[in-house]
Design brief:
Shape: globular
Mean pLDDT: 89
Number of helices: 14
Largest sheet: 10 strands, mixed
Radius of gyration: 22 Å
CATH superfamily of the largest domain: Alpha/Beta hydrolase fold, catalytic domain
Oligomer: single chain
Length: 502
């Protein structure tokens, strides 16, 4: 959730990737765990529970398990924890939904304890700080367990998962390396549980959507093509990193960010509109039309056109014309967080611009931190530790790494030659073209600057990506739309309908 700078892309581009959900950390922290490979004894704990999900009362089995990945010579290298919830009695025709979060470096705690797991942490729904403990762990009637068995995966270096002592992190920390490791875990789970005939869904949040594109390439790509998929579930999507890079000269970053500025300004009463949907649409049209044209003209833009664009941009974003002129009509997200509510002595959040914070002083250009991250982080970490250790009987002296910075040691290369441009959306396009039964669900929050909704639309609307099997849904919250009670229920209902429609 906190920004990390990643080496393979430019710093400006990487400040938006979740990397939208990653904290700074030294690469030395991820060269291998203290556990010697010879001492690895994988743990598996199974418990039975009952609950009501989607209005359906049921029994289910929870299994928290360590899956060991080995080198070619049989040495344990990675220990990956999965937490699965399977309805009783077992029905192998039920869909299986494989779920992970982003980062890179984020455990599955956010989607497990916030959205789809049978238990969730109960925190304020109205963009307020989660405060101090206790943080109640409560039943989650919005869990998708009534329509699919759920498998949450913590990639290496996240959650309770780890690399063994001496393992080279370069084998696991990277776009392709991470996808290959998770593909092995998914195949193993399918095989061990006899679920080759089950409908299969992949889903992740933020960098987890990048991971989904890489995984579909591993599972249905040219090399293996052995695991057929029914659906890809993208939550707070980041596929094309180039459109979020504010390196001077890349105008598209400002184009895709402007609608988020408009919706944030609308939420905080800085602009007027019939609804957030109406404001978002008006901003989309302006961004793709007059605004994009003005930016692309560079120094050839006339004074009259510049003044017209500046007036309309001010009306849509709530920023003064004087400020927009000083910024040369190009306002970075960091500047926006500080400037929008400067007159109130407040900053707005990056992950969720509904949240506000108070900085050390009001004079700076950038906010001290993201109030939408520090407003929820402690509660989720406490909840996953409580549930895993007490509810699922997992035994470990390891700390749960809910959000750690693997970005600094991440291999962002796809082997496409020189340059920093990274776009994994074509993998989804190829999968849709080659699998006529595959569908995509894309969920975006209107107040999410980490992975702007217009950027996701732009990425998925490129040529080569069939549009007739993509479902777009929007929510009145930010990056983690499920922290708002109404949107957690809506997201659950939307996904339930998507899975049932197979």
């Amino acid at each position: 959730m906190k920004t990390t700078l990643l080496t393979a892309l430019s710093a400006a581009a990487l400040s938006v990737s979740l990397s939208a959900m990653a904290t700074p950390a030294s690469a030395d922290n991820h060269k291998g765990d203290e556990t010697p490979a010879a001492l690895v004894v994988p743990q598996e704990k199974t418990t039975t529970h009952s609950g009501t999900f989607g209005g359906v009362r049921m029994d289910y089995t929870a299994t928290i398990k360590e899956t060991v990945l080995k080198s070619d010579d049989g040495k344990p290298e990675a220990v990956i924890v999965t937490t699965s919830y399977v309805r009783n009695p077992l029905d192998k025709t039920r869909p299986v939904f494989f779920i992970y979060n982003g980062g890179p470096g984020s455990g599955s705690v956010w989607l497990q304890m916030g959205a789809f797991g049978p238990k969730r942490v109960d925190i304020p729904s109205d963009a307020r700080d989660d405060g101090a403990p206790p943080y109640p762990v409560v039943n989650n009637p919005e869990s998708l367990l009534d329509v699919a068995d759920l498998v949450f995966i913590d990639p290496p270096g996240t959650g309770f998962s780890y690399l063994t002592q001496g393992t080279d992190s370069k084998k696991y920390y990277g776009l392709r390396q991470d996808a290959r490791a998770l593909a092995q875990v998914i195949r193993r789970w399918i095989n061990d549980n006899g679920r080759w005939g089950s409908p299969k869904y992949l889903g992740g949040e933020s960098y987890g959507t990048t991971r989904t594109a890489m995984l579909v390439n591993e599972l249905e790509g040219a090399t293996y093509n052995d695991v057929g998929l029914n659906g890809l579930i993208l939550i707070s999507t980041i596929l094309d990193f180039g459109v979020e890079d504010t390196t001077p000269g890349n105008e598209m970053a400002y184009v895709v960010m402007l609608p988020n500025m408009a919706t944030a300004a609308y939420y905080h009463g800085k602009v007027q509109g019939a609804s957030v949907e109406a404001v978002a649409q008006e901003a989309r049209e302006f961004a793709l039309g007059p605004y994009a044209s003005a930016l692309l003209k560079g120094q050839d833009i006339s004074a009259e056109e510049r003044a017209s664009v500046r007036r309309e941009m001010s009306r849509l974003t709530g920023l003064s014309e004087a400020y927009l002129e000083e910024a040369n009509l190009r306002v970075t997200d960091q500047r926006f967080y500080k400037e929008l509510l400067r007159d109130r002595g407040l900053t707005v959040g990056r992950l969720d611009s509904r949240y506000t914070g108070v900085d050390y002083d009001n004079a700076g250009e950038y906010p001290d931190s993201d109030p939408s991250f520090y407003g929820i982080d402690a509660s989720y970490t406490a909840a996953i530790n409580q549930w895993a250790r007490e509810g699922l009987n997992f035994e470990t002296d390891r700390a749960y790494n809910s959000i750690g910075g693997l970005g600094g040691s991440w291999d962002w290369s796809l082997g496409r030659g020189r340059g920093a441009y990274l776009n994994v959306a074509p993998y989804i396009g190829r999968a849709l073209r080659q699998n006529s039964g595959l569908r995509v669900f894309n969920a975006q929050g209107y107040y999410d600057f980490a992975t702007p909704f217009f950027g996701a639309e732009y990425s998925l609307n490129r040529y080569g990506i069939p549009q007739d099997r993509i479902t777009y849904k929007y929510y009145d919250a930010g990056h983690m739309m499920y922290i708002r009670d109404e949107d957690r229920a809506k997201l659950s209902a939307d996904l339930r309908a998507f899975i049932k429609a197979r």
